[in-house]
Every structure is written in C-alpha cells, then in structure tokens.
Design brief:
354 residues, alpha/beta, seven-stranded mixed beta sheet, four-stranded mixed beta sheet, 12 helices, 40% helix, binds 5-S-methyl-1-O-phosphono-5-thio-D-ribulose
C-alpha cells in the first residue's frame, strides 16, 4: 500500500442514500477493518465516547454529521421546535468527550449555520446543515495537506522521527496532522525512520499509528512508551511530531497522556518538539493549560482491556487521565495550516489568527 491508498480507508463517511454515518471502527484495528453504519444519535455519541471514531479533527467531522443526521427527520417542525431539538442533540453530542475542542468547535459551527439561516424554511435549513458538515470535512482535508506542506520544510531525508498516539490519517479526513509532514515528504520521495510510541493504555500508537504507517509503506518501528529516552540517548531521534486536542492561547497543549513526558525528554536531549495544530484546535478563549478539562477514563482500560486475564489486583485504585498538558516552554514550534508558529506563542497566535 502507498500513501494515496491509505486514503481509501475513510474514517468518517456520510451515506446519503440511507442517511447513515459510516465510521471505521478504530477499536477493532489493526486485526479487523470494520465499518459501522450508524443512524441513532445515541449510537453516534457512543462511537465518539468509546473511541470508535477518535482523534480531534475526526471527532469534529463525525459530530457535525451526527448532529445533521439527528435533526434531519424533523423537517415538519416549526423553527422553534426544530431549534429546541437541535440544541438538545447538540448538547448531548458535545458531552461525549471533554478535552478535544474540535468537538464543540464543529457543533458550534453547526449552530451558527442554523442561526444564520433561521429565516429559511426548516427543510432548507436542513440542507444548509448538511452542506456545513460537508465543509467541515472538506476543510479538514485541506488543513492536513497544508500542515504537511509547511511541516515537511522542517524535516530532512532519513531523519528519525518519534510520534506519540495517533495523529495520522485515522484521526482526520486526510493525512493527519502529526503525520502529514511525513506523508508529504514520502510523496516527494523522502524516506524517514518513524518511531511510534505504543501509547498506553489505549495503544493508539501500536494499533493505529503502526498500522497506518506500515500500510503507507513507511519504515516504522514500534516501542513501549518507556523506551523513548533510550532511543533519544542513542541519537536516533531528530524530531518529535505530535498532534493536539486543545491548545491554550499561551501555547500550553493538551494531547494524549504521555505527550508531556516526551516533550521533557526532547528538551533534555535537544531534539525539536513540534506540535501539529489545525487552527480549529487552538482555543484562544482558554488562557492557559490550567483551564483545560482533562478527560478521566474507565479504570478497566488500564487493568484488563488488553489482557486475556485481568492483570491488576481487584479493587485497585487506578489513575487514568486520557490527556496531559505540555507546557508551552517545551514546544519548539506549532505547525499549523497557516504556517509555522514560533515563540512567543501568545503574540504570534494572535498575529496569525486574528
Ligand atoms: O483519545 P484519542 O485517541 O482521541 O486521542 C487522540 C490524540 O491525542 C491526538 O493526538 C489528537 O487528537 C490529535 S489527532 C490529529
């Protein structure tokens, strides 16, 4: 398989013929490639909450289509009835996961679309909502390509590149964020040595990043999270590329649990640490990382989910935050679809995004 063929496995797809949403079930990868066809709002909520669809941009796309599909059957409602139902479904979907800002960002865009077209008949508003969800998906593709174009300029052929979690194709509608510079380089004939942290406890690195990089024909090596320091000490890593779930206005960055540890190691070994960040993930309303709500997940993910038998004593207390916050001082630069942002991040984000 090649980089282009990877895109033949879409993460989220609207089926217009029967008004359902197809989701590549990421909980079954890499052993099974299964598409789920969802039609009920509760199923779509569950797909997001249980990480069947995951990765900040893909969650946003899935949520936008889910909201459209949830309100689509109510064309006969008055605008007041329709907007009340819309708000109920929007709030419900928004509560599926707290940290990735793309979820509320996409749902708020859908709400803005509803309000902008409130003078139209509900049947036409529904068409506008579908078009808005399509735009969110299309913009996601353009964003990935653009992050790839900007990011590849920071890389050199044959570099060793470490990534954490999965911020690749499976997390977006196209090339991903953190892996976009890699895929763009590969398209240009460059080769890299990719290192994928397994990413305990949900193993997005082992199950998803290793899977998609292998499918794309990249040279990829899997390592346990606690092996990154040894690899860096040996001089095998030239750059770290990660994604993000919410970036605060000062540059503090929430991403998959373990990211901040990798950033601290990179700083110690003088390795550039790049966060690939679509502007939809930069939350200028959030001043610092202290304001970011970190999702706490089920203890079972740590004690038994990936084992034939439970491997921890019964009733043991478990600490299972899904994300951590990397301090802005550890980040070399953000690679956004609008360009590369160096410190001071607060000032430079304002310049780029205002
Ligand atoms: O819990 P997940 O698998 O949704 O976490 C995903 C990440 O942390 C990604 O790095 C982030 O969402 C960026 S995806 C382009």
């Amino acid at each position: 398989m090649s980089v282009e063929n990877l895109l033949s496995l879409p993460t989220v797809r609207l089926n217009e013929e029967d008004h359902t949403l197809s989701i590549l079930d990421q909980t079954q990868l890499p052993s099974k490639t299964v598409y789920l066809r969802l039609s009920e709002t509760e199923e779509m909520y569950e797909a997001i909450a249980r990480l069947k669809v995951r990765g900040a941009p893909a969650i946003g796309v899935a949520a936008a289509y889910s909201l459209y599909l949830s309100v689509r059957p109510y064309a006969h409602y008055s605008f007041e009835e329709f907007s009340a139902l819309f708000e109920e479904k929007r709030r419900y979907l928004d509560s599926a996961r707290p940290t990735a800002v793309n979820l509320s960002w996409a749902l708020n865009r859908m709400r803005a679309c509803l309000m902008q077209h409130r003078h139209l008949p509900v049947t036409e508003i529904i068409i506008c909502l579908k078009n808005e969800a399509d735009s969110i998906k299309e913009e996601d593709t353009v964003m990935c390509r653009s992050i790839g174009q900007h990011g590849v300029k920071l890389l050199k052929p044959n570099w060793g590149i470490l990534t954490h979690c999965n911020a690749g194709h499976l997390a977006t509608s196209c090339f991903g964020t953190a892996l976009a510079p890699v895929y763009t380089g590969m398209e240009q004939g460059m080769q890299f040595h990719l290192y994928a942290d397994e990413t305990r406890p949900l193993l997005q690195g082992a199950r998803l990043t290793a899977f998609e990089l292998q499918k794309a024909g990249a040279d990829v090596t899997l390592l346990c999270d606690n092996m990154a320091a040894s690899l860096m000490a040996k001089g095998r890593i030239n750059a770290v590329l990660v994604g993000c779930d919410r970036v605060a206005a000062n540059g503090d960055t929430a991403n998959k649990i373990g990211t901040s540890g990798v950033a601290i190691l990179a700083k110690y070994y003088h390795i550039p640490f790049y966060v690939c960040a679509p502007s939809s993930t930069i939350d200028l309303n959030c001043c610092t990382g202290k304001e970011i709500v970190i999702e706490e997940r089920n203890p079972d993910e740590v004690t038994e989910m990936w084992y034939n038998e439970r491997m921890a004593p019964p009733h043991i207390k478990v600490y299972n935050p899904a994300f951590d916050v990397t301090d802005f001082s550890l980040i070399t630069a953000f690679i956004t679809e609008k360009g590369i942002v160096y410190p001071p991040f607060k000032e430079n984000f304002k310049k780029l995004f205002s």
